[in-house]
Amino acid sequence: MERLHKAMDFFIRHQTTLSYSMVSLLTAGSEQIFSSVVFKCPCNSGNMLYGFSFLLAPAFILLLLGYMVNARTWRLFTGKCSQQKCLQRSPWGTCASSCQLLVQITAKASVAPLTWIAVALLGANFYECAASGNSRIARLFCKDNGTDCQNQLLKTPCDKELSAKISGEWLSLKAQSQLIGWLLIASIMTVALISTCVSRCCSPVSYLQLKFWKIYSKKEHELFEIKAKEHATKLAERNTNCFFEATDPAPFHTPSNEDWQKISILYTFDSEEQYYSMIHKYVSTNRGNSPKFNEEGQDLTVLAFVDEGQASISGL
Question: Which of 109, 145, 213, 222 is 20 to 30 Å from the Cα of 277, by its Cα?
Fold first, then answer.
């Protein structure tokens, strides 16, 4: 039982890393299936289009799915185009905060497509097919050997012996693909490390306070879900009972549209009177009626939001 608790604690502490790892493993497995079962290079003039379609199209689809399944995307866009919001909010502030959040969403959504491209390049099947139909690569391999060499190059993905013969003094198409794949992986890891170091260095909160923030945000999210279900259930029961019993409804308080708008906007961290969420800020400023509620949040250098129980801070 104690080992089970330790395992659960480990999964909870590292759930973000484990979720990324799971997405990467599933993507890599899917690429292997596509490469070995579905992909069949035509070995003709359509090589380039066919190969790059398998290399880039699935990655683009995975990127779109990453946007769609991320709750932050809908938190960012829901209600943003309504006329009332456009009149109430400063376009510069909204644009700055939205772009900041969009960068974070894109970084998370890019895990699967980048994994697909990297694994596909290491496997080399897609690139080898696409590159064999590229005119520039054909000139590099064939030089002055004429169209006969170029026609043979189109057939190299289907003939390994022919591929070794044409490669000659240049790197083979498979070697080129694997080299590009490793460079891509190294570049991604370098950018990730540098961005993490810079963001942590510019963090407005300490390591332990950030840890507390994440715990608070997770608990607030869980309690919000529970309370929202309870409140919705009571309201639904009252309305259905009144409908079937033909009675007048008893008074029932529910948050107004204005209240929902106040807790749904993006939260900006203030080091002087810090709050850990928009709900925290809302209840601490007389349900958002205090002038401080509107005065704060003008500093867009630090943007924080709660998504699926996790606290995220811009630059953290």
Answer: 109
